[in-house]
Amino acid sequence: MRFISLLIASTVFSTSVLANEVNVYSAREEQLIKPLLNAFSKDTGIKVNLVTSDDDPLLERLKREGTNSKADVLIMADAGRLARAVQYGVLQPIQSPRLQQVIPAYLRDPAKRWFGLTSRARVIFYAKGRVNPNEIKSYEDLTAAKWKGRICVRSSNSIYNQSLVASMIAHQGEAQASQWVKGLVQNFARPPSGGDRDQIKGLAAGECDIALGNTYYYAQMLFGGDSSQKAAATKAGLIWPNQSTTGTHINISGAGITTSAPNKANAIKLLEYMTLDDAQRWYSTVNGEYPVTNKALTSAQLQSWGNFKADTLNLGELGKYNQTAVKLMDQAGWR
Ligand code: FE
Question: What predicted TM-score, i.e. pTM, was given to this entire model?
Answer without folding.
Answer: 0.92
